[in-house]
């Protein structure tokens, strides 16, 4: 049973896809809660109404379900601190913004859009000039009664320093004079992120705010809101930046130009959710006293502690993810492998082809399901190839020897009707012996003849077993005819 000693939340804005950095935030937040036997909350931050994307919340919920990050409270699950979708909590924010005004820590601002635009034109970085900060209570009342549109702004201290201690980055301080009187409640009645996440984190009893380090420097403003309400501040756990390496070797914030960056795109490209999750767990965290890199989610729950989180940026390494994925695919039980790999097989494979044998040939040989199409293309159709592929030093195949070996192989294979790997192997081995060559020479030539390639999943006999007798013999004949 979850306790409330450690309460974390994942608070995504519904963008329509799950950026891998966001998924890492969700994972770490989840793990901190689970490690402490605590509570993990999902909260949807949809107050930026201009950026709403249809169906985006479902993508978030489905992603968390796909990777097994079960939440104790949130949309669809409920909980005593709901609703868990911010657009359904408007009245709450309004009430708290008004309370802050009453406490003298916020104020009504009636400045028009035109005035603010003019200010911005005059000085791009100047920010708001605090024009309405000292309006008299009578003026405010009069404006409100006249129905003049307003926003509510946070009244920042103008001197001194605000600090907090981040669990990962240590002490972070900001000169108060640098803080803008930021908007808490917009003219449309919706709160800003800056305001509502603080109110929600407090009301939902969040003890550890876990999020990306882009919020590291704005957190003093949020800490001031806690102080103004007289609420205890939460622990802050900001996570290291997630970077990508460009083709020229330079490192920058992970984005589409580095490759697929959403969970959905990676899954569609043939990555397993477990492999993705395992890999991203290590992007910014490492276990104490363990060399192991393979962790199930429940192992991570047992191991994950905040002091293992690094503050240096992590670089997303696609090669490493591919390696992880290959390892995970190799560990799949064969029936599961078949289930997941089958959709990647070409739809128009020849009927005579043995699909089960093809799948066992592939098992253990793919690092990502999306490789399958290319790997098996030659089964569907023999690619055009040149006889120059046959001569090979290592296997001692000369241009003169190749056609002789192919003819001998074709003759011996035409004579048999049992067509399994073992029989094919025995037959070809005796062909080699009779020809006085190493068996490598014959297997090399036959493999090229039946695949049109020098690198294939599986060897000559395995490929022929999948192709079946008729097609294999036809391909051998076609190879011989090339000389
Ligand atoms: N909605 C914010 C985001 O997606 C949440 C930041 C936070 O966790 O406080 O970036």
Q: Care to describe what's here?
A:
This protein is mainly alpha-helical. Among the domains are: 88-239, 3-Layer(aba) Sandwich (Rossmann fold), CATH 3.40.50.620; 334-380; 387-482, Arc Repressor Mutant, subunit A (Orthogonal Bundle). It contains 19 helices and 12 strands. The strands form 5 sheets. Strands 3-4-7 form a 3-stranded antiparallel β-sheet. Strands 11-10-12 form a 3-stranded mixed β-sheet. Strand 1 (7-10), helix 1 and strand 2 (39-42) form a beta-alpha-beta unit. Helix 1 crosses helix 10, helix 6 (193-203) crosses helix 7 and helix 16 packs across helix 18 (460-467). The protein binds glutamic acid. Residues 11-13, 45, 193, 197, 211, 215 line the site of glutamic acid.
Structural class: mainly alpha
Q: What percentage of the residues does DSSP assign to strands (E)? A: 5-15%
**The CATH homology group name of the domain at 88-239:** HUPs
Mean pLDDT: 96
Chain-wise SSE layout:
Blueprint (H helix, E strand, L loop, with lengths): L6 E4 L9 H16 L3 E4 L13 H12 L22 H13 L3 E4 L3 H10 L14 H9 L5 E4 L6 E6 L3 E6 L7 E3 L7 H11 L4 E5 L6 H11 L5 E5 L2 E4 L5 E3 L9 H6 L4 H9 L15 H7 L10 E3 L1 H13 L3 H8 L13 H8 L9 H9 L20 H14 L6 H15 L3 H13 L8 H8 L1 H13 L2
Parallel strand pairs: 1-2, 8-9, 10-12
Antiparallel strand pairs: 3-4, 4-7, 5-6, 10-11
Brief characterization of the structure:
Helices cover 42% and strands 11% of the residues. By secondary structure, it is mostly helical.
């Amino acid at each position: 049973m979850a306790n409330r000693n450690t309460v974390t939340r994942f608070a995504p804005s519904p963008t329509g896809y799950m950026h891998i950095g966001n998924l890492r935030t969700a994972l770490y937040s989840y793990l901190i809660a689970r490690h402490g036997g605590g509570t993990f909350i999902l909260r949807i931050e949809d107050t930026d109404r201009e950026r709403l994307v249809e169906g985006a919340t479902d993508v978030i919920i489905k992603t968390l379900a796909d990777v097994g990050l079960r939440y104790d409270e949130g949309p669809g699950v409920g909980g005593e601190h709901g609703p868990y979708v911010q657009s359904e909590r408007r009245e709450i924010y309004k009430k708290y913004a008004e309370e802050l005004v009453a406490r003298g820590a916020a104020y009504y601002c009636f400045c028009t859009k035109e005035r603010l635009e003019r200010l911005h034109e005059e000085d791009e970085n100047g920010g708001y000039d605090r024009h309405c900060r000292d309006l008299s209570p009578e003026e405010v009342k009069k404006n409100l009664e006249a129905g003049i549109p307003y926003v509510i702004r946070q009244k920042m201290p103008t001197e001194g320093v605000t600090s907090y201690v981040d669990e990962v980055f240590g002490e972070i301080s900001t000169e108060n004079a640098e803080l803008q009187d930021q908007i808490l409640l917009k003219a449309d009645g919706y709160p800003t992120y800056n305001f509502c996440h603080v109110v929600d984190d407090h009301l939902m009893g969040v003890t550890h705010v876990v999020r990306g380090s882009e919020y590291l420097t704005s957190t003093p403003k949020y800490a001031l809101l806690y102080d103004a309400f007289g609420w205890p501040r939460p622990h802050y756990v900001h996570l290291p930046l997630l970077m990508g390496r460009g083709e020229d070797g330079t490192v920058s914030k992970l984005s589409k130009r580095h490759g697929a960056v959403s969970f959905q795109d990676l899954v569609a490209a043939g990555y397993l959710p477990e492999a993705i999750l395992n890999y991203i767990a290590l992007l910014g965290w490492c276990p104490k006293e363990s060399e192991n890199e393979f962790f199930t989610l429940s192992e991570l729950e047992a191991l994950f502690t905040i002091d293992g989180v690094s503050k240096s940026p992590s670089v997303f390494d696609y090669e490493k993810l591919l390696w992880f994925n290959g390892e995970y695919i190799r560990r799949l039980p064969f029936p599961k492998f078949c289930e997941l790999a089958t959709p990647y097989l070409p739809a128009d494979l020849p009927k005579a082809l043995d699909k089960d044998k093809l799948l066992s040939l592939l098992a253990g040989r793919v690092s990502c399901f999306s490789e399958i199409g290319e790997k098996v293309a030659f089964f569907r159709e023999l690619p055009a190839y040149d006889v120059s592929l046959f001569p090979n030093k290592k296997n001692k195949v000369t241009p003169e020897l190749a056609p002789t070996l192919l003819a001998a192989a074709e003759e011996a294979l035409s004579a048999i009707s049992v067509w399994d790997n073992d029989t094919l192997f025995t037959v070809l081995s005796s062909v080699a012996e009779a020809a006085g060559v190493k068996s490598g020479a014959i297997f090399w030539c036959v493999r090229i003849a039946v695949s049109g390639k020098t690198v294939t999943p599986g060897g000559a006999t395995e490929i022929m077993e999948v192709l079946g007798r008729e097609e294999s013999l036809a391909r051998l004949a076609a190879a011989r005819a090339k000389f």
